[in-house]
Specification:
By secondary structure, the chain is an alpha/beta fold. It has three domains: 41 residues, Winged helix-like DNA-binding domain superfamily/Winged helix DNA-binding domain (Arc Repressor Mutant, subunit A, Orthogonal Bundle), CATH 1.10.10; 102 residues, Periplasmic binding protein-like II (D-Maltodextrin-Binding Protein, domain 2); 102 residues, D-Maltodextrin-Binding Protein, domain 2 (3-Layer(aba) Sandwich). The chain contains eight helices and ten strands. Helix 3 packs across helix 6. The longest helix is centred in the first third of the chain and has 25 residues.
Length: 265
């Protein structure tokens, strides 16, 4: 297929969608926000199609599929799955990174949702309360005076996240806590990028109790202020209906709950 044909096909598809999917800049061709959302959906769809083809054909390795947000997958699951597989070499894990809630079914075995604290559903387990606090790298505090109070943050580099904005505005108003997004020097559209910027020493970001657990525990990130918000929501682990029949999946669920136990103390 020639380049003009590809460009024409893209224009026709964007016309069909009613919005631009790509933008050209000095770095080349980038996805727009609408394009990124469509890519995420299509990527998950193709993964599911691939998994279904493997299942009905009887070929391919049998995996336990864990759907998780990009930040949870990168900063909680990935650093610990190596130890899990060392203990359970016969269990293969496939991590599907998505920032959309996916219902556990015959294609996704385990996932994590954030729901009101009284959430009740079969094959679901309370993991921990949703607690929000500020985080930064130790290196950032070495090169900047540590804030002594919330008002001191106006003198610091703040890192915001658009995908967290709606929930943060809600709890911020309830707790009289200002939304970092409105004052941030840098704003990302993904929580994983926000944490990555904090790890790189770019400033102070917001951390969530579960997703930042390992980063804080290993002192890759620190809390420059003790201030925190405990919302009315919580993290829940969910599994597909056949978890009781699937010994491998039950082992993964028990391991996840054991690794996050300190957050429930």
């Amino acid at each position: 297929m020639t380049q003009p044909s590809v460009s024409h096909s893209i224009k026709m598809f964007e016309k069909h969608c009613g919005t631009g999917l790509f933008v050209r800049d000095n770095r080349g061709v980038q996805l727009t926000e609408a394009g990124r959302q469509l890519y995420d959906e299509v990527r998950v769809g193709f993964r599911r199609l691939e998994q279904r083809l493997e299942a009905i054909s009887g070929r391919g390795t049998q995996y336990i599929t864990f759907a998780a947000s990009t930040s949870l997958a990168a900063h909680w699951l990935a650093p610990q799955l190596y130890d899990f597989q060392a203990e359970h070499p016969d269990i293969r894990i496939k991590v599907v990174a998505t920032d959309r809630d996916i219902d556990p079914d015959h294609e996704v075995d385990v996932t994590v949702w954030v729901r009101p604290r009284d959430f009740d559903r079969g094959n679901s387990w309370f993991v921990c309360d949703e607690i929000i606090f500020r985080v930064c790298s130790p290196a950032y505090l070495l090169s900047h005076p540590a804030p002594q109070a919330v008002d001191d943050l106006v003198h610091h580099q703040l890192i915001g996240c658009l995908s967290q904005a709606h929930g943060l505005v809600r709890v911020g108003r309830a707790c009289r806590w200002r939304c970092e997004r409105d004052q941030a020097n840098i704003v990302f559209n993904d929580s994983q990028l926000t944490l990555q910027a904090a790890l790189a020493g770019e400033g102070i970001a917001l951390g969530w109790s579960l997703t930042a657990q390992q980063l804080v525990k290993n002192r890759l990130l620190v809390r420059p202020l003790p201030t925190e918000i405990k919302t009315e929501r919580a993290f829940f682990l969910l599994a597909s209906d056949d978890v009781s029949k699937n010994k491998r999946c039950k082992i993964l669920v028990d391991w996840f709950l054991a690794q996050s136990e300190e957050l429930r103390l």
